[in-house]
């Protein structure tokens, strides 16, 4: 991969993203999720590498984000998956800094985000199915004939 030119963008005032929440913004034609972790802001690509879930809509838990579609968890410090480590899927992160109360994010210019969604897991998602369990009969109850 070649090194792309990067540029810092002023994105939003710090007070516009409540603590423990995230917001999606478009910066240089890239969807970026910015999270307020309380004492710092972090920015990652706003799509889960599993099935492109909108990470800004996910749930923050400590320093991890839980994708709202399939509950994949990612460490925001490293970008690595927490509960599907075997997948090798990783979040692309962007440097952040605060200037005069404004969140700034550094993103590559002219580099397109991947448009193809990687299939990170071997099996495809299956719909949930309710299964009726056979009743447990006491040992002295006569067994019903099997069909």
Helix content: under 10%
Our count of helices gives 0
- Our estimate of the beta-strand percent is 25-35%
Ends apart, CA distance between termini: 62 Å
- The number of distinct β-strands equals 10
Radius of gyration from the CA trace? 22 Å
Q: Report low-confidence residues grouped into runs of 5 or more.
A: 114-134
CATH class category of one domain: Mainly Beta
Report on this structure.
The chain is mainly β. The protein has a domain at 17-97: Rieske [2Fe-2S] iron-sulphur domain (Rieske Iron-sulfur Protein), CATH 2.102.10.10. Helices cover 0% and strands 33% of the residues. Strands 2-3-4-8 form a four-stranded antiparallel sheet, with no helix packed on it. It has a three-stranded antiparallel sheet with strand order 1-10-9, with no helix packed on it. Strands 5-6-7 form a three-stranded antiparallel sheet, with no helix packed on it. The radius of gyration is 22 Å and the shape is elongated. The termini are far apart.
Summarize the structure.
By secondary structure, this protein is mainly beta. It has strands at residues 6-13, 22-27, 30-36, 41-45, 59-61, 64-66, 73-75, 93-94, 96-99, 102-108. Helices cover 0% and strands 33% of the residues.
Task: Indicate the topology.
Blueprint: E1 6-13, E2 22-27, E3 30-36, E4 41-45, E5 59-61, E6 64-66, E7 73-75, E8 93-94, E9 96-99, E10 102-108
Antiparallel strand pairs: 1-10, 2-3, 3-4, 4-8, 5-6, 6-7, 9-10
């Amino acid at each position: 991969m070649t090194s792309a030119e990067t540029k810092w963008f002023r994105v939003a005032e710090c007070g516009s993203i409540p603590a423990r929440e995230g917001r999606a913004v478009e910066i240089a034609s890239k969807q970026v999720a910015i999270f307020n972790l309380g004492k710092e802001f972090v920015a990652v690509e706003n799509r889960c590498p599993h099935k492109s879930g909108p990470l800004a809509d996910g749930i923050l838990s400590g320093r991890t984000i839980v994708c709202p579609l399939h509950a994949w968890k990612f460490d925001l410090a490293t970008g690595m998956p927490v509960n599907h480590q075997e997948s090798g899927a990783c979040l692309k992160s962007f440097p952040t800094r605060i200037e005069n109360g404004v969140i700034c994010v550094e993103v590559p210019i002219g580099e397109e985000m991947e448009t193809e969604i990687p299939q990170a897991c071997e099996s495809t998602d299956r719909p949930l199915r309710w299964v009726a369990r056979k009743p447990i009969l006491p040992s002295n109850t006569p067994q019903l004939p099997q069909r």
